[in-house]
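Sequence in, structure out. Go.
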Amino acid sequence: MTRIHTNIPSIIAQGRLYNNTSDLQTRLERLATGLRINRGKDDPAGLIASEILRSEIGAIGQAIDNSQRAINVISTAEGAINETSRLLLDLRGLIVNTANNGALSQEEIEANQLEIDNILASIDRIANTTSFGSKKLLNGSLAYSLSSANAGALTNQISSISVFSARVPEGGSQNVVVQVTASAENGILQVTGTQTSASTIEITGNQGSEILAFASGTSVADIVTSINAVTDSTGVSAAVVGGVVNIASTGFGSEAFVQIKTLSGSFIDGNTYTAGATEVRDIGVDATVLVNGQIADTSGLRVNIRTANLDGEFYLTSNFAQQTTSAASFQVTGGGSLFQLGPDVSPQGQVSVGINSISSGSLGNSVIGYLDSLRSGGANEVKGKNFIAAQDILEESIYQVATMRGRLGSLQKNQIETNINSQQIALENVSSSESVIRDADIAEEVSALTRSQILFQSTQQTLQIANSLPQAVLGLLG
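Output:
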């Protein structure tokens, strides 16, 4: 049957040509862009999945960049702290040298004090000038902010607080409750009686030993005075309590002890403290302390707590360390330095660290004094022969600086660098998943392009033939 008004074969060929042209354009677009999905119609479900994965890839990449920047900040701070540590070691040598004042002239002692002043000035300069960008790192601006409802009571309970890490809710605070459940004890020996015969004893504590000789009839008060006169050398003090002589270590905890050995005669209590008898010794006991209900690590009056929500160190007062009827509490209200290490903004993806000031006015503590007191005119200047006090302050300062440096190093190694490694693996896997969904398979697309080109060309030929069919009616008119 022949018609000229409606050319059905041409219409069919046109439809096929449209489809083949569209398919050819799709293949050319995919090869040009390298993507299988260029618009939503290409694969609506795949586009949704791909966009979600792309968002995750971007977040993971930024988390890696954040971690690298955090390492740069920590490395800057640690480098400055390392220099401060070196200065403190030099300071230790100057104190020991000046303590040899019997062999030094006054000019040499003054020169040592001047060098100590210069070292302290250098420590303060490092603390006040170390920065990353415009952010000061070691002047205390990155330390945590603390508050207490009863600051006076807290001072009588906790003499020093250092918070290294805390999770503080946005716009809120973290409450910290410190409870002593078992008292701290010092090493203590109780002696009852009178000095009825001459005796010589060796008294030993954490600081060392001293030999004391007592004549027959020496009063208890004089014995106590003699023991207390060498407290700096022994770490042992004495007091009369209810007619009993308490000879105790000045420190608390399992590292503190007191020992008495009678070298000759009988010391007060002849049954126990007699020449030839075994020395009598007592060791202190560490307190059992709960911080927010969790058992803390204690050493003497020092308390360390390390949990996911709180990492800190406190010094208890000796009175509070021996109480089990009250608790101390304070709040961490903010501050610190927050590093966003994860791809999601949540507490699990963040690390917060407090960087305390390392200035001479901050190193040390309120119990033994601060490093600044070693300056000329200070309470513990070495030219005033305050060698033992200066050494105690310096040892505490060295410990604080070493602890800060170690914690920053641990943060970098165990949290930030491992985070980079894990995020890098996640980036590889998520990128691979997104590529499978969205990227074009070039080999497949080239094959499909060849097929589309052939179909396109054959459809063109078919359409040309279909368009010429109506001309056959001319043969009927002849």
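Check: The first strand starts at residue 131 and ends at 132. The CA atoms of residues 147 and 210 lie 45 Å apart.
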